[in-house]
Amino acid sequence: MVNSKIQAGEENLLHVYNRFPIALDHGEGMYVYDTDGKEYLDFAAGFAVTGLGYNHKEFNETLKEQIDKIYHISNLYYHENCGDAARALNQASGMDRVFFTNSGSEANEGALKSARRYAYTKQTGRYEFIAMENSFHGRSFGSVSVTGHDSYREPFEPVVPGVHFAKFNDLESVKALVNDKTCAIILEPLQGEGGINLATQEFMEGIRQICDENDVLMICDEIQCGMGRTGTMFAWQGFGVKPDIITMAKAIGNGIPVGAFAMTKKVAEYSLKPGDHGATYGGNPLACTAVKKVLEIFEKERILDHINKVSPYLTKRMDELVAKWDCIVQRKGKGLMQGLQFSIPVSEINKKTVEEGLLLIQAEGNVIRFVPPLILEEKHIDEMIEKLERVLTDSD
């Protein structure tokens, strides 16, 4: 049965993903199950998306109720849940104005346009961006243009001009690129795809100072590292360094396709005006219901407290792996967004963990990424370690 389903997919879908040879059917909590009923412990969470885990009853019921009411209207009209979701998301992110999109790439597109519009309105003549090496911001033309991997950009060149890349956590390399054409600096406080690289306090504070001194906007891409993953609702809050614009997606909808970019009132005053930007499906009633309910559940179930309680145990167990296995170079990251860097190819390890019933994902720099649902318990960490060690033993 599984093979026929996989074959149908391969024959009819454009081959742009290197999929694992399993066909998943349903999920429950920390686990997903394939069409043969095999169980997989999920430490990937659909690329850090399903923060509340699978089949969360209250979340599901809320969405079902909304589907029976209305799930799409034109953005020419208001919907109560859209306003409620915007208010809750602004409160959580520390921003003042939010625009809902369908994805993270779209959120970054909107953030880049917002920065350009800010400069246009203020007549500064600024239009260039500074981004970081090893960054990842999406695959649309604007977002891929500020993604710091040649392999993502080269097949589609010429991409959007006026983008310069600095070294992550190297403040001097950023300063060297700032000029009278720079309108914004975009970075991930914790790089995901780029190898689980955490910004330093000095770097975040330095970027903020550069932006303040030059009327340049600071954009934080929190699409993967936001929504509690690092122990604060958004990663910038852990540094105490507030950006001008923030982008988010993934876990804000727990699997319902939704993203957002948000900005301070100061930026909004000079930024996008009616007609400058839009999204037919962005901010639809179903997506906004998901965002609103996710934020309610975060508060009701004290998700942040749980993350800060369980993440030190994950750190401890992963540090034990580093000490025990010569093939593991180091642990990287923070909270429930961590990685192990290996001295041996991780692609084969990743394949074997799937066979072992453990889902993980790779990142740049020979890193395996650990971004589990935020509801995990210590027993799940122990189970993950046990499965991973079996794979490493077989690979020795």
Automatic annotation (TrEMBL):
Entry's cofactor comment: Binds 1 pyridoxal phosphate per subunit.
GO function terms (MF aspect): identical protein binding; N2-acetyl-L-ornithine:2-oxoglutarate 5-aminotransferase activity; pyridoxal phosphate binding
SUPFAM superfamilies: PLP-dependent transferases
Keyword 4Fe-4S part of the UniProt annotation: no
Subcellular location as annotated: Cytoplasm
One of the protein's GO biological processes: L-arginine biosynthetic process
Pfam families reported in the protein's UniProt record: Aminotran_3
Binding site for pyridoxal 5'-phosphate: 136, 221-224, 280
Main location as per UniProt: cytoplasm
Pathway(s) where this gene product acts: Amino-acid biosynthesis; L-arginine biosynthesis; N(2)-acetyl-L-ornithine from L-glutamate: step 4/4
GO cellular component terms attached to this protein's record: cytoplasm
Domain of life from the UniProt record: Bacteria
Keyword presence, Transferase: yes
InterPro entries documented for this protein: AcOrn/SuccOrn_fam, Aminotrans_3, Aminotrans_3_PPA_site, Class-III_PLP-dep_AT, PyrdxlP-dep_Trfase, PyrdxlP-dep_Trfase_major, PyrdxlP-dep_Trfase_small
Residues the record lists as N6-(pyridoxal phosphate)lysine modifications: 250
Cofactor entry: pyridoxal 5'-phosphate
CDD domains: OAT_like (cd00610)
EC number annotated for this UniProt entry: 2.6.1.11
Catalytic activity: N(2)-acetyl-L-ornithine + 2-oxoglutarate = N-acetyl-L-glutamate 5-semialdehyde + L-glutamate
Note: May also have succinyldiaminopimelate aminotransferase activity, thus carrying out the corresponding step in lysine biosynthesis.
Subunit structure: Homodimer.
Family in the record: Belongs to the class-III pyridoxal-phosphate-dependent aminotransferase family. ArgD subfamily.
Protein name: Acetylornithine aminotransferase
Organism, scientific name: Faecalicatena contorta
Taxonomic lineage of the native organism: Bacteria, Bacillati, Bacillota, Clostridia, Lachnospirales
Gene from which the chain derives: argD
